[in-house]
Amino acid sequence: MTPETAKARAEQVGCQKMVAVTFYEAFTAIESHKHENL
Fold this sequence. Notes:
It is a single chain. The chain is mainly alpha-helical. The chain has one domain. It has one helix and no strands. It is rod-shaped, with a radius of gyration of 16 Å. The model has no long low-confidence stretch (mean pLDDT 92).
């Protein structure tokens, strides 16, 4: 694997991780909001 490919792979993984964290935070916010309404 060339350094360019490795760099692209790392950026892709970093992007996916960021999306996953954002999605998780949104999900957690929605869940806690549900419990507040009960």
